[in-house]
Design a protein that fits this description.
The chain is α+β, with helices and mostly antiparallel strands. The protein is built from 6 helices and 4 strands. A 4-stranded mixed beta sheet has the order 3-2-1-4.
Protein backbone atom coordinates (compact mmCIF):
# COMPACT_ATOMS: atom_id res chain seq x y z
CA UNK A 1 0.00 0.00 0.00
CA UNK A 2 1.51 3.32 -0.99
CA UNK A 3 1.23 6.63 0.84
CA UNK A 4 -1.60 7.95 -1.30
CA UNK A 5 -3.68 4.79 -0.75
CA UNK A 6 -3.19 5.08 3.03
CA UNK A 7 -4.41 8.67 3.03
CA UNK A 8 -7.48 8.22 0.82
CA UNK A 9 -9.19 6.10 3.49
CA UNK A 10 -9.56 9.16 5.73
CA UNK A 11 -12.03 11.94 5.11
CA UNK A 12 -10.08 15.14 4.42
CA UNK A 13 -10.43 18.09 6.77
CA UNK A 14 -12.42 20.82 5.05
CA UNK A 15 -10.79 24.24 5.13
CA UNK A 16 -12.40 27.32 3.66
CA UNK A 17 -10.38 30.23 2.33
CA UNK A 18 -12.08 33.60 2.66
CA UNK A 19 -11.52 36.72 0.55
CA UNK A 20 -9.42 38.23 3.33
CA UNK A 21 -7.04 35.27 2.75
CA UNK A 22 -7.87 33.70 6.12
CA UNK A 23 -8.13 29.93 6.29
CA UNK A 24 -10.93 28.43 8.38
CA UNK A 25 -10.92 24.82 9.65
CA UNK A 26 -14.57 23.76 9.57
CA UNK A 27 -14.01 20.75 11.86
CA UNK A 28 -12.40 22.77 14.65
CA UNK A 29 -14.37 25.96 13.93
CA UNK A 30 -11.29 28.17 14.00
CA UNK A 31 -8.94 30.10 11.73
CA UNK A 32 -5.59 28.52 10.90
CA UNK A 33 -2.22 29.60 9.58
CA UNK A 34 -0.34 27.87 6.78
CA UNK A 35 2.09 26.53 9.40
CA UNK A 36 -0.78 24.94 11.34
CA UNK A 37 -2.11 23.36 8.15
CA UNK A 38 1.36 22.01 7.35
CA UNK A 39 1.48 20.50 10.86
CA UNK A 40 -1.89 18.79 10.27
CA UNK A 41 -0.56 17.30 7.05
CA UNK A 42 2.66 16.11 8.74
CA UNK A 43 0.50 14.41 11.37
CA UNK A 44 -1.08 12.37 8.56
CA UNK A 45 -4.28 14.31 7.89
CA UNK A 46 -5.46 15.14 4.40
CA UNK A 47 -7.06 18.49 3.73
CA UNK A 48 -9.44 19.90 1.17
CA UNK A 49 -9.37 23.65 0.72
CA UNK A 50 -12.23 25.42 -1.01
CA UNK A 51 -12.83 29.05 -1.87
CA UNK A 52 -15.61 30.25 0.43
CA UNK A 53 -17.59 31.95 -2.35
CA UNK A 54 -17.57 29.55 -5.24
CA UNK A 55 -16.61 26.34 -3.40
CA UNK A 56 -13.84 25.93 -5.99
CA UNK A 57 -11.24 23.38 -4.86
CA UNK A 58 -7.96 25.25 -4.30
CA UNK A 59 -6.13 22.52 -2.36
CA UNK A 60 -3.23 22.37 -4.85
CA UNK A 61 -2.62 26.09 -4.60
CA UNK A 62 -2.55 25.99 -0.80
CA UNK A 63 -0.21 22.97 -0.75
CA UNK A 64 2.10 24.73 -3.21
CA UNK A 65 1.93 27.86 -1.07
CA UNK A 66 2.98 25.83 2.00
CA UNK A 67 5.98 24.47 0.09
CA UNK A 68 6.91 27.95 -1.14
CA UNK A 69 6.62 29.38 2.39
CA UNK A 70 8.94 26.67 3.69
CA UNK A 71 11.35 27.44 0.87
CA UNK A 72 11.19 31.11 1.79
CA UNK A 73 12.13 30.16 5.35
CA UNK A 74 15.40 28.68 4.06
CA UNK A 75 14.43 25.01 4.16
CA UNK A 76 15.97 24.49 0.70
CA UNK A 77 13.42 21.92 -0.40
CA UNK A 78 13.84 22.59 -4.12
CA UNK A 79 17.21 23.13 -5.75
CA UNK A 80 17.39 26.13 -8.10
CA UNK A 81 18.49 23.90 -10.98
CA UNK A 82 15.31 21.82 -10.62
CA UNK A 83 13.15 24.95 -10.59
CA UNK A 84 14.79 26.13 -13.83
CA UNK A 85 14.15 22.73 -15.42
CA UNK A 86 10.49 22.76 -14.38
CA UNK A 87 9.95 26.23 -15.83
CA UNK A 88 11.79 25.43 -19.07
CA UNK A 89 10.18 22.04 -19.65
CA UNK A 90 7.12 21.39 -21.74
CA UNK A 91 3.93 21.64 -19.64
CA UNK A 92 2.83 18.07 -20.49
CA UNK A 93 6.27 16.69 -19.69
CA UNK A 94 6.33 18.48 -16.33
CA UNK A 95 2.84 17.26 -15.44
CA UNK A 96 3.77 13.71 -16.40
CA UNK A 97 6.94 13.94 -14.31
CA UNK A 98 5.08 15.10 -11.20
CA UNK A 99 2.07 12.82 -11.58
CA UNK A 100 3.92 9.64 -12.41
CA UNK A 101 7.63 9.57 -11.80
CA UNK A 102 8.09 11.86 -8.80
CA UNK A 103 5.04 10.48 -6.99
CA UNK A 104 6.08 6.83 -7.41
CA UNK A 105 9.71 7.59 -6.55
CA UNK A 106 8.66 9.39 -3.37
CA UNK A 107 6.46 6.43 -2.35
CA UNK A 108 9.40 4.08 -2.99
CA UNK A 109 11.74 6.31 -1.00
CA UNK A 110 9.36 6.38 1.99
CA UNK A 111 8.89 2.58 1.87
CA UNK A 112 12.66 2.06 1.68
CA UNK A 113 13.28 4.46 4.55
CA UNK A 114 10.72 2.64 6.74
CA UNK A 115 12.41 -0.67 5.91
CA UNK A 116 15.85 0.71 6.82
CA UNK A 117 14.50 2.08 10.11
CA UNK A 118 12.95 -1.33 10.88
CA UNK A 119 16.22 -3.14 10.11
CA UNK A 120 18.22 -0.72 12.27
CA UNK A 121 15.83 -1.32 15.15
CA UNK A 122 16.21 -5.07 14.70
CA UNK A 123 20.00 -4.73 14.63
CA UNK A 124 19.93 -2.60 17.78
CA UNK A 125 17.85 -5.28 19.48
CA UNK A 126 20.28 -7.99 18.29
CA UNK A 127 23.25 -6.02 19.60
CA UNK A 128 21.88 -6.52 23.13
CA UNK A 129 21.84 -10.30 22.68
CA UNK A 130 25.48 -11.05 23.68
CA UNK A 131 25.01 -9.17 26.96
CA UNK A 132 21.72 -10.89 27.66
CA UNK A 133 23.29 -14.30 26.92
CA UNK A 134 26.27 -13.61 29.18
CA UNK A 135 23.91 -12.56 31.98
CA UNK A 136 21.92 -15.76 31.44
CA UNK A 137 25.13 -17.81 31.52
CA UNK A 138 26.24 -16.18 34.78
CA UNK A 139 22.84 -16.74 36.37
CA UNK A 140 22.69 -20.34 35.18
CA UNK A 141 26.20 -21.58 35.82
CA UNK A 142 27.69 -18.92 38.02
CA UNK A 143 31.17 -17.55 37.93
CA UNK A 144 33.63 -18.11 40.77
CA UNK A 145 32.86 -15.63 43.53
CA UNK A 146 29.52 -14.57 42.02
CA UNK A 147 27.11 -17.25 43.25
CA UNK A 148 25.49 -19.86 41.12
CA UNK A 149 27.11 -23.32 41.15
CA UNK A 150 30.27 -22.74 43.14
CA UNK A 151 33.03 -25.34 42.85
CA UNK A 152 33.10 -27.75 45.81
CA UNK A 153 36.27 -27.68 47.95
CA UNK A 154 38.52 -30.71 47.80
CA UNK A 155 38.10 -33.04 50.82
CA UNK A 156 41.73 -34.14 50.68
CA UNK A 157 43.21 -30.93 51.65
Amino acid sequence: MNMSEEKTEKKPILIKKYQNRRLYNTEESRHMTLEEIAKLIREGHDIRVVDSHGNQDITKQILAQIILEEEKNQKDLLPVSLLYQIIRANEDLTRDFFENYLHSMFDSYIAHRKLVEKRLTEMRDLSKLPFELSDLFIRSFGVAGQGGNKPKPDKEG
